[in-house]
Amino acid sequence: RALYLAHNDTIGFYLRPSKWQAIEAGDLSGTVIHPAMIRMALLIGGIYWSMQPGRGQPSIDEDYHLQCIHQSLAQQPPDSVTSITVYCQLSWYGFVKREFSEGQAYLMKAHDIVRQHHLQICSPDMLSILDINQPDDDTKEMVTILCQMIYIDKASQLVLELSSVLPKDFDHQLQQLPTFQPWLCKHSVVVSRTRGAYFLQKALRLSSLALVTGFQQEMDSSEWYGLYWSTLEETAQHAAALTTEMLKASLCTDSRKAATLKVCLIICLSAQLELHRLPGLYHPESRQKVVDGVNEIVGLTRGFKDEEVSLLDPILGVCWTIVATALRQEKEAFVDMSSLAPDGNWARAFSVMISCASKVGSRIPFLGEKFSGFQVRAPLLTLVHLSR
């Protein structure tokens, strides 16, 4: 249970203090928190136990706890937010076990509850527009788990190339979220990661359009042109806010939060990198932004410690693929690559990326054969080729 709570940002949930304490105590009475959440803590905590180096398989019967979770839901139906939380975490569990269709099925169950109760991450009837004060616990729990639901869907698209199971109107809500929930956009790791995945997906879509028709031709499209610059501006603002929060967490010796915020920052910087790469071949200022972005992502990757690997996320494989693509483009353009590597050591930069990607590929959940083959090994082969 302690490992489950320690990875709350990675799993993607917020709990008010009384519920947090109930999970710590293993309280199955249901007076403070639904019993299904206690069983979930044991189930997912066991997975994180097995991910730690030198630890064997925990003595936890996963099938038994899954059965208990479903029985609890049937016998004592929880409130809507708790139900969504349980189904999102069952979806997470499905992806961990490489049961991707099962993971998506649970995600659809979560969305069914959202639809039935007309829940939104930024409902039009909210009165706290631009209210910088900290929201109440009910709002924190609801917005956080809805963002995690969206994140799982986007991560499965980006990492595993699965189809979305959620409607597109959530993208519009994410875009409006800083207006309705500025405090959560600044302070919640889960919200920040979801917004980063949203920007990354937008950047890759813009890039794919430019790849088909050519960047110059897309520049002539007023719709594409406007979306390009608005996305670049949004990612820059998001990256600036994340940098401040990450430095604050690091300075205050909150290493776990600092590590998860680094993941969020890498996602956002990768979106920026993909956008700057498009005109980078003929626009010196954009090319310099590519160089700066690669340097920053490599530097952040190098900063991850071995004990922080379980806090990382499979979406980093997509980010490193973007870095490898940018480097290949620069290599083919005969650009002097020496300035890209930290301390002028280009080989060391490749070593950093390869080392961290290998650890992520072998230890964090939801990788599976498909992901480890396509999203990790492919960019690593590119990196090795470029370093020669």
Protein model, in words:
The structure is a single chain. It is globular, with a radius of gyration of 21 Å. It has 18 helices and no strands. With 388 residues, the protein is mainly alpha-helical. It starts with a helix and ends with a helix. 73% of the residues lie in helices and 0% in strands. α4 (35-51) runs antiparallel to α5 (62-75), α6 (80-96) runs antiparallel to α7 and α6 (80-96) runs parallel beside α8 (137-160).
SSE order in H/E notation? HHHHHHHHHHHHHHHHHH
Q: Radius of gyration over alpha carbons?
A: 21 Å
Structural class: mainly alpha
> What's the main sheet like?
none
Number of discrete helical segments: 18
Distance between the termini: 47 Å
Instruction: Say how many strands there are.
Output: 0
Share of helix, binned: over 70%
Q: pLDDT average, as an integer?
A: 84
Strand content: under 5%
The multimeric state of the shown protein is single chain
Which spans of ≥5 residues are poorly predicted at pLDDT below 50? Answer: 340-345, 365-388
What is the molecular shape?
A: globular
How do the helices and strands line up, and which of them pair or pack?
Layout: H1 2-6, H2 8-11, H3 17-25, H4 35-51, H5 62-75, H6 80-96, H7 100-116, H8 137-160, H9 169-180, H10 182-187, H11 189-213, H12 215-219, H13 222-251, H14 255-277, H15 284-302, H16 316-332, H17 346-363, H18 368-387
Helix pairs in contact: 4-5, 4-6, 6-7, 6-8, 7-8, 8-11, 11-13, 11-14, 13-14, 14-15, 14-16, 15-17, 16-18, 17-18
Q: What key phrases describe this protein's structure?
A:
388 residues, mainly alpha, 18 helices, globular
